[in-house]
Amino acid sequence: MALPKNAYFRGKIVPYSEAKVGVATNALHYGTAVFGGLRGYWNENKAKLFIFRPFDHYQRFLRSSRMMCMNLEQDEENLIQLTIDLLRVDGYQEDVYIRPLAYKAEEGVGVRLQGVPDELTIFSIPFGRYVSNDTGAHVTFSSWRRIDDNTIPARGKVSGAYANSALIKTDAVRAGFDEALVLDQSGHVSEGSAMNVFMVREDVLITPPVTDNILEGITRKSIIELARNELGIEVVERSIDRTEVFICDEFFMTGTAAQVTAVTKVDHREIGAGEMGPITGKLRQMFDEIVRGKYPKYEKWLAEV
Ligand code: PMP
């Protein structure tokens, strides 16, 4: 994978090779960091880069940081401006992924959060598709369970919790699947390794509630709004049982990286007609047009670099 060109690090934009931390850094040992993941979409006609919902992403980032007893000096607007400054220096004329990270920066030994200083870094890299099979993914139910809110908050993007996601993804891919669905401790479907999930049953769009150990996804929130307001579909947030996935009409996953990924098979069972369903297709297309600035009503979701 290509390295970032630059990074925002210790208060300024520096070449990536200068953005380094010591091996004794607290966050490296204990996972005491929080991060975000945003996308910038290159609009060919306007010859401009647009960031998708940066305010919402940075609001969640700051909330995640508070869960980990961090005290960042920046607010959402400051973080958006830092990101725009960085992207202007990077100068990519293609789709990018943007990664802000706030981490417990003390160098030394000791598991704790209080009294440990925080640092902020941001970098971007060119980024295309994340799930290669995104119009017909084959997923499995992971044998791992989703971390519980009383273990590590799943609603925040806490670095340490991504050991859970990495185990889930690795075992799924090694077993020949594209992705995995994860059950929480109560046995309900929570999400994928790094994406929220939706199913269609009898024309109703159903997704787990934010109290079922999911990340409060920005793409999830966008899809709920689009389904209700643009397609006039009923959306219900409720727990999902494992066997409902076997018998639903359509299933898809959403995330900044995954965008709208259709799932057509779960553990060798075909979902619905075994191909991307009509509601998934419509939402996928609409989402793609919106993020590329081709849908004036939703330009409010985009920030120009
Ligand atoms: N769940 C998890 C565990 C994730 O890491 C992500 C990616 N951020 C998502 C869901 C999707 O969230 P979003 O749409 O905000 O990218």
By oligomeric state, this entry counts as single chain
N-to-C SSE string, H for helix and E for strand: EEHEEEHHEEEHEEEEHEHEEEHE
Sheet with the most strands?
Answer: 9 strands, mixed
Q: What is the count of structural domains?
A: 2
Radius of gyration (CA) equals 19 Å
Low-pLDDT residue spans? none
**CATH top level of the largest domain?**
Alpha Beta
The strand count comes to 17
What fraction strand?
25-35%
User: Structural class given helices, strands, pairing?
Assistant: alpha+beta
Q: Which small compounds were modeled alongside the protein?
A: 4'-deoxy-4'-aminopyridoxal-5'-phosphate
Average pLDDT, all residues:
96
Output the CATH topology of the largest domain.
D-amino Acid Aminotransferase, Chain A, domain 2
The CATH architecture term of the largest domain is Alpha-Beta Barrel
TL;DR?
With 305 residues, the chain is of the alpha+beta class.
Task: Characterize the structure shown.
- The chain is of the alpha+beta class and 305 residues long.
- The chain has two domains: 6-126, Aminotransferase class 4, branched-chain amino acid transferase, N-terminal domain (D-amino Acid Aminotransferase, Chain A, domain 1, 2-Layer Sandwich), CATH 3.30.470.10; 137-291, D-amino Acid Aminotransferase, Chain A, domain 2 (Alpha-Beta Barrel).
- The protein is 26% helix and 30% strand.
- It contains seven helices and 17 strands.
- It has helices spanning 26-30, 54-67, 76-90, 162-174, 218-229, 242-247, 278-291, and strands at 6-9, 12-15, 33-35, 38-43, 48-52, 96-104, 118-126, 137-145, 179-183, 189-191, 196-201, 204-207, 234-237, 250-255, 259-266, 269-270, 302-304.
- The strands form two sheets. Strands 8, 9, 10, 11, 12, 13, 14, 15 and 16 form a nine-stranded mixed beta sheet that branches. Strands 1, 2, 3, 4, 5, 6, 7 and 17 form an eight-stranded antiparallel beta sheet that branches.
- Helix 2 (54-67) crosses helix 3 (76-90).
- The longest helix is centred in the N-terminal third of the chain and has 15 residues, at 76-90.
- The chain is globular, with a radius of gyration of 19 Å.
- The relative contact order is 0.15.
- Bound molecules: 4'-deoxy-4'-aminopyridoxal-5'-phosphate.
- Residues 37, 165, 191, 194-196, 215, 217-220, 254-256 line the site of 4'-deoxy-4'-aminopyridoxal-5'-phosphate.
